[in-house]
Every structure is written in C-alpha cells, then in structure tokens.
Amino acid sequence: MKTTSDFPNINERIPDGKRNGGAAFRVLVVDDSMFVTKQIGQILTSEGFNVVATASDGIEGVEKYKELYPDIDLVTMDITMPRMDGVSALEKIIEFDKDAKVVMISALGKQDLVKKSLLIGARNYIVKPLDRKKVLERVIDVLKG
Ligand SMILES: [Mg+2]
Hints:
Layout: E1 26-30, H1 34-45, E2 50-55, H2 58-68, E3 74-78, H3 86-96, E4 102-106, H4 111-120, E5 124-127, H5 132-144
Parallel strand pairs: 1-2, 1-3, 3-4, 4-5
Helix pairs in contact: 2-3, 3-4
The structure holds magnesium ion (MG).
Magnesium ion binds at residues 31-33, 78, 80-81.
C-alpha cells in the first residue's frame, strides 16, 4: 500500500497558518456576527491557523486577549459591535501590548474608522463582504510580512 511518504510533494507545502516549525498561528476572532465569526474561522482553519478563541464584543475581546497573552499571534477585530466597538477595543489591546497584531474587519463606508484604527496601531484591515483570498493575504502579510 502506498503511503503519503510515497508522494513527498503532497507534504512539501507548509500551510500558511503554520510556522516553519509546524506550530499553528493562534488567532482570536472578535465579531458580534456569528456568521462572520464562523466564516473567518473556516477560512483560517482551512489554512492551518488555530482559532483559539472568539469574542462577540469589544469588552470580551480585550478580556480574552489578556487571558491568552502572550500565546496569541493575531486578532481579527470587527469595528461595529455592541458594548464596546472595535476601535476602542483595539486601543485597549494596544495599551496592554503595543506589539499586538490586530487586523480590523470593516463594513463598507467606514473609511474614517479604518484610518483611525491604523493610526492607533492596527496592522491592516479587511472590508466585508469577506473574500477568502483577501482574508488570507492580509492576515499572512501581517504575520509574515
Ligand atoms: Mg459587527
């Protein structure tokens, strides 16, 4: 019987969600939409990322970041959420960890808030509706770029 070792090429490519050593990048997804959270989770998991936690508003997002720190590589942060919006949550996370890698998830027409987020220290942003290729491209650029 043939095994994967008979087809070395299949195993050659390291998925983008993994470091060269093989450990998955650890991601926190903060979004009040269960649909978007699931979508981001599916996109990232399919490339080998490890979605270690999700949060449905800014307050919970900041709490989870602090709990996970330093074992957290990246946050996807929705902008519009109840209780605490993504821009405020970003501010709190950067206050706590100035090297935090946060990618904003924005609805169309929120350019001002995206600009503000980038000034505060967000590393990149993705505009909804989410496109698989774009999500991976931006996330990977922040982690490896
Ligand atoms: Mg939202």
